[in-house]
Amino acid sequence: MPQKNMDAVRICIKGINGLLCVAVFALFFATLAAQSDFWPFGSRRGNVYAEPAVMSAAAGSQRDGFFGNITIEVAGGISLPEAKVLINGRVAGDFAAGAVMVRVYEGDFVLLDTLAYVEDIRFCVTRMSSNICPEGLQLELFVTDGQEIIGKIAFK
Questions:
Q1: What is the pTM (predicted TM-score) of this model?
Q2: What percentage of the chain's residues is helix, strand, coil (to nearest 5)?
C-alpha cells in the first residue's frame, strides 16, 4: 500500500478512536447524572423503588384494632421537608423524601400542613391499604392556604 493511503487509514483510525472515547465518556457522565439528585428523571433523594418509612402519629403507644397505611406523594416527587402530615393533630411524617407512608386507624383525621411554603402544592394519595374506604377521602388535592384536609379514615 502506498504511503498516502497508509496515512489516510491512520488518520481515519485516530478519528474513530477519538469518537469512541468521547462516546464512552458521554455515556459515563450520562449514567452519573441519571443517578444524581440533580437529574429530573433519576432518583428522588434515594432509591425510587424504596418504600417510604411507615410513620404513625401514635408512635410510642400501641393502639388496639385494625390499621391501614396510606402513601401520600408530592406531585413531581420533590422534597418538601417542612410539609407535614398530621393525624389527629399530631405530626406523623414529612415530605423530605417527596412521599410519606403513614399508619392510620379507623376514625383518624388526616390533614396536610404546608404553612412553611407560599406556593400552591399538589399532593396525591398514591396507595392505600385495601381495608380503607376511599369514599370521603381526597385522593388528589392542591394545598393553597397552608392546610388541607385529606379526610377521616373509615374501613370497609
A1: 0.60
A2: 20, 35, 40
